[in-house]
Amino acid sequence: MPIKDPPQRLARIGWRAQALPEDVDPAAIARVVAQHRTGYQLHDGEDTFNAQPAARFLKRDVDPTARPAVGDFVVVAAGSPPTIERVLPRRTELKRGAAGESHQRQLIAANVDAVFVLSGLDHDFNPARIERYLLLIQGSGATPVLVLTKADRAEAVDTIADDLRRRVPGVEVHAINAKSAASVEPLLAHLGPGHTAVLVGSSGAGKSTLTNTLLGESRQATGAVREHDSRGRHTTTHRALILLPSGGCLIDTPGMRELKLTGEEQIDRGQFADIDELAQSCRFGDCAHASEPGCAVQAALADGRLDPDRWRNYLKLRDELAATADTLEAQLRRRSEAKVLTKALGKRLGEKYGRR
């Protein structure tokens, strides 16, 4: 069926490009709203339908981040079932290091404008983990928004929020009751027509509860949390993009127990830029910031300008980032060497036996 107004249809699923690709039929564009073991679920702005990826996406040597992911706009070929033939260029990519020892990157969501980092104002609250989230978000192209949930059950909420604002200056912070439509209203500034946000945070932080409130209905399953550590079950079992009454799109994700850096982050920028600037002021260029004379970092720690907990977390993330980057570089080098050897072997076999 021909689409009378493709831009309006695509705007419903978060299309933000200035123009449609010249070589693509607008009627063939859809957005990935969910991924399952058996395939993908897409939305074309009018209907939801299932699709399978083209065979080339399933090859073992394909970079996992090159495969379709939730939030992607894709070109679909008609068929039974329809086939995802192409992933359109992404305007943003939120990634993390894949769990385990694979040293690969995992795409959490694509084409998002804001990342809502949820942290419960209970045992879940951890400023160091929030800083880790911000480091991951830094290179994504999306805007981080810190959402402190369970404000209706916590004490000294304003003090906690203000302390966090001082620790991560320039980052938007909201303390909310995720069950209250009035309380979550400030988040709607990031969820207007054509905009997409993704929810990240631990299990039990209130992602599904917030989603239901923004929807105005109980669509996402919610669960209780354990008393001793405020952790919950994975009530959300897969990433899913949801169209909201506000006109925007929201991607709900399962709780993340492991937040590995990708190795591409730049710790001297974003929320740690001030520490890097302090380090540049040390008397000696190779200062280790321990007991050297004229160390600006130690001076800031001594007079209270630099929070000791924040400094320790900076060192932890810096060392982890350096190790991850070294591992990634070694992996890329091995892949490059393997390709060269394979090409050389193919050339020798061709010269010996001839091409077929």
UniProtKB/TrEMBL annotation:
Known EC number: 3.6.1.-
Parts forming coiled coils: none
UniProt superkingdom: Bacteria
EC main group: hydrolase
Cofactor dependency: Zn(2+)
UniProt xrefs under InterPro entries: G_CP_dom, P-loop_NTPase, Ribosome_biogen_GTPase_RsgA, RsgA_GTPase_dom
Keywords: Cytoplasm, GTP-binding, Hydrolase, Metal-binding, Nucleotide-binding, Ribosome biogenesis, RNA-binding, rRNA-binding, Zinc
CP-type G domain boundaries: 104-259
Chain positions recorded as GTP binding sites: T149, K150, A151, D152, G201, S202, S203, G204, A205, G206, K207, S208, T209
Assembly: Monomer. Associates with 30S ribosomal subunit, binds 16S rRNA.
Record HAMAP family: GTPase_RsgA (MF_01820)
Annotated PANTHER family: SMALL RIBOSOMAL SUBUNIT BIOGENESIS GTPASE RSGA
Family under the similarity heading: Belongs to the TRAFAC class YlqF/YawG GTPase family. RsgA subfamily.
Protein name: Small ribosomal subunit biogenesis GTPase RsgA
